[in-house]
Amino acid sequence: MNQKPGRSKFFGVFFCALVLALLVSAVHFRYLYRDARSFSLKVSMSSSVQGRTQFYYDTGEGLTERESVKTDVTGDGEFHTYSLPLPLVTIKGLRFDPLRTGGVVSIQEISFVNGFGRSVSSIDLHALRPGKQIKTFDFKDNVLNVTIEEGAVDPQIVIPIGSPLQLHQWILFPFASRLLGWFVVFFVSTFVLIWILRKHSAMTSFFDHPVKTSYRWVRENKSLAGAVFCIFVYRVFFVLTYPLDTCSDQWTYYQMLRHGYSTLIHATGYPFFMHFFSPWLPTKYDVLVFQHIIDFSVQLALMILLRKRFGPVAAITAGLFYGLDLRTINWVSRSTPEWLQGAFLALAFVGAMEAYFAERPVKKVSLYLLSAWAFAWTILMKFLTVVLLPVYPILLILERRPWKEKGLCVIAMGVVFFAQIGYFIYSYHYPSTGTKALTSITGWTLDRKIGFFLPEGRHLSESGPWSKRYCLLVSEMPLGLPEGVPHIGIHSLFGNVASVPRWIREPYRGRYRELLEKNELELKTMIEKRQNLRGHDSFFLSYYFLGLSETDRLLEKVFFETVIRYPKEYLLQVLKGVKESFFIETSYYVAVIGNPNSNHPFQLNKNDIIQNLPCGYARYHVSKAIRCMYEDPVFLKAGLHFFSLWGERVNIPVIVKWIFIFTGTLLAFIAYRKDKSCKSHIVYLSLGVMVLFLLIVEANMIWALRDKEFAACQHLFCVLI
User: Is 262 helix (H, G, I), strand (E, B) or coil?
Assistant: First the structure.
């Protein structure tokens, strides 16, 4: 008896959602299992000096350096919570070395917590006893205050433990409940999404008969399906090997992602985008998996579009160039915007190209709108892509359509584009920063660029009147903060336009207004009387005492004035940067198994293993550099060996990719003379090369093309290859 059509549709969608939920849960199982089998020592403390704290745990063989955990502490006098991972052992005694130097330490809490953040056992601070090199030891408001002797090298605090603490019990209920909970959430949300997508005519057949349709597609596209499978397995293997990298700027982005705030020092489109999903991404491992799902989905979509336009060879080549490049997919394992910007940039470009070649008006407008939406995201991720706006008018001019249709298309794209940016500003950016300006480090960037081309022996004040005003102003600013003003870090300074009290800035703003009334001759006279005149690289003083937006506008004028004063030097520096961009080496930021003949900065050795874990995982005793990347590094040993060999031996230089693209463009023009059907190749390649070249030139005009900016081009590179 045949199934009813409605039941067939339901079971088709049910099957697709179930498979996807099982795949994601299988990956999630790896991280939940690790959490269920991990413990750490949680310490809430403050320190008057920067240093290192260390805990020794006795498992029955006494206190040794091998059986200890340590971490760096911040010396700002504020309370911070530190997490020190512990092996699965039975602890019979503890010793706490708060610092390796003299200072004052205040302790609020010491406790043992499991991998899910729940406290297993707390240590009574009143039970702690001072050891050697401890000067004072007293309690106030439930806080233990410890003063360490001046010149101390090994201060000690003894922590008595009444009975041995076992850290190897299985945490079954939190493990099972979380795994089941996230499976249900993902299954239901996927089911609803697929049911909506099923309405799209191109997807109806697949979602109604997923197995049959998939089998038919694989049979008809064997080579492409094989390439997709290889790329998928390779990526999953990488995700299972390395945790999320949250070092340096990545940590700032991760905090913005979690807490939903914006700043004026970073483009915050990435945390804004990820913040939508943060309630469903409770751990770093969820963020890691989700990022790779997004990136792989975009890559798969691009491969399918390329196959329809250019055939399977083009799709497979693009997929393999991107999907197997270790340095490229490593960016996806970092809480940083470049990978997401690259995905949206390629999506915007291919969407615009497909819209240009589309015949049906509805499809054409839909693709243009998709492209405009994706392009708005690229600007919010990193502002460099604003230079690519000319691509759209070029395409519309080439369109053989009535100007009325073109005009309506432009209006629709403009509405989508500005609505997206407006929503970002008013819902996310403005409430945090107090300004509608997207960034306040334009002046900072341009000032750094001045340092690249300003001739040696020339002072910035020689450039013109605006440069003279700037140099005079910053020369009158103090190097330290006013009395009674608390210190604020760079991220706090750029967190809001009013981060510094008005009464501090007003005298310097008044002085700036006075300098604006002076002509160049008067300014020159004042400079001649001034000793210790400051120049470029004084922008932090100006940002603090003058203001963020004011400094940006001033430094923009200083930059253009300096470029006009030294045009030859500026042009040569830009051309040098463009030339170097064709040979740029992308960073290799992954941990590898140590090779004595390699200069790799993040090497691990077999004897660094401090705890073997199930399923081929191990916890390593790592250097400070790797700990910066991975706070509690747990690696898959098989993956480490594989990627160590792969990353150092299989690396396609950037110049080779450029040769591929330039050769392809030339061949397309030659073929077009004989076969007019090659028009799509020429449009794709010509505009793609223009996009990449504009990005490279713009980056070098305002600063330099770094591997960060290059990472955002990788998707598009692979599409063009």
Answer: coil
- Residue 144 in contact with residue 127, Cβ under 8 Å? no
For the stretch 48-85, pLDDT in tens is 888 888 888 888 777 887 788 888 788 877 788 887 88
Q: How far apart are CA 419 and CA 199, in angstroms?
A: 26
How far is the C-alpha of 356 from the C-alpha of 338, rounded, in Å? 27
Question: Is residue 150 within 8 Å of residue 100, measured between CB atoms?
Answer: no
Tell me which amino acid residue 371 is. Answer: S
Where would I find the H helices in 242-333? Answer: 249-259, 269-275, 284-310, 312-323, 326-332
Count helices and strands (H / E) in the chain.
29, 18
Closest CA to 111 of 126, 103, 123: 123
Give the separation between CA 238 and CA 640, rounded to whole angstroms.
9
Q: DSSP strand E in 92-154: where?
A: 93-97, 103-114, 119-122, 129-130, 134-140, 143-148
Write out the two tokens for 477.
């600013």
Q: Are the C-beta atoms of residues 244 and 335 closer than 8 Å to each other?
A: yes
Q: Work out whether strand 90-91 and strand 51-58 pair parallel, antiparallel, or are unpaired.
A: unpaired
Kindly state the DSSP code that residue 607 receives in the 8-state scheme. G
Model pLDDT for residues 106-162, shown as the tens digit of each residue: 888 888 887 776 777 788 888 888 888 888 888 887 888 888 888 888 888 888 877
Structure tokens at 156: 């000690």
How far, in Å, CA of 483 to CA of 363, rounded? 64
pTM (2 decimals)? 0.76
594: exposed, middle or buried (Cβ count in 10 Å: 0-12, 13-18, 19+): middle
Angle at 100 between CA 95 and CA 103, to 5 degrees: 105
Q: Which residue has the tokens 């995700």?
A: 239
**CA–CA dist 289, 282 (Å, integer):** 12
CB 128 within 8 A of CB 158: yes
